[in-house]
Amino acid sequence: SLVKPQDLSKVRFGMYAADTIIDPADGSILLHKGELFSSFYLNSDGTYLLDQIPLGSYDLKELEAPAGILLEKKSFPIVISQTDETTEIYDVQLQVTNQLTYLEIVKEDMNGQVLTGAKLSLRRASDHQEIAAWVSGRDPFVITGLDPQETYILYELEAPEGYVRLKEFDVSQPGTPGRHRLAVKNTQVTISKEDL
């Protein structure tokens, strides 16, 4: 994977009032429905402690995610409600798991038959840095964590025996969940014999 999961400090959340938040002491409105209570980046270990939250219902929304991690589209409900007259601190924990972008690349002939032995290289278009290099096999090559905002270039350095080498072409990672498959197709070298 191209994503370094040990540093999640680029993940940003927003916590919004799901309903109007009322101060129980005097009945005044603290937050209107949909109003942002807090926006924050996680610590590098993926945690964040948010305190001094008024009682009420909230929606936690992921606002930013690092390149190669799909932004979670759904919001997460959080309810902080008074359970008795003596508890002063309420502990609410939430775990959010994101998906990485996922792309499998397979070499095929024009009939959809898998081709082995092609030497391939995937490079970032912006700086031509090589992201991955491999030789095609029976199983697709899988790469996770590609940035959907980037364009990549797929180079065929060597074609499978008996096939025409492909010209390089742009590859974009869809920014949607699920497995995405790229079939790279080669045409066969044809030689015809003619009598003179």
Structural features, described:
With 196 residues, the chain is mainly β. 0% of the residues lie in helices and 38% in strands. The chain has no helices and 13 strands. The protein has strands spanning 12-17, 21-22, 29-31, 36-41, 56-64, 76-80, 102-109, 119-124, 130-135, 141-144, 151-158, 169-172, 180-186. A four-stranded antiparallel β-sheet has the order 4-1-5-6, with no helix packed on it. Strands 9-8-11-12 form a four-stranded antiparallel β-sheet, with no helix packed on it. β8 and β9 (130-135) form a beta hairpin. The N and C termini lie far apart (57 Å).
Question: Which features does this protein show?
Answer:
4-stranded antiparallel β-sheet; mainly beta; 13 strands; 196 residues; 0% helix
Arrangement of strands in the largest sheet: 4-1-5-6
Radius of gyration: 26 Å
Count of helical stretches = 0
Task: Report strand %.
Answer: 35-45%
- Report the sheet with the most strands, covering strand number, pairing sense and barrel closure: 4 strands, antiparallel
Instruction: Name the overall outline.
Output: rod-shaped
Average per-residue pLDDT, rounded, comes to: 87
- Spell out the helices and strands N to C: EEEEEEEEEEEEE
Q: Strand tally, please?
A: 13
Helix content: under 10%
Low-pLDDT residue intervals, each spanning 5 or more residues = none
Q: Which structural class is indicated by helix and strand composition?
A: mainly beta
Q: How far is the first residue's CA from the last residue's CA?
A: 57 Å
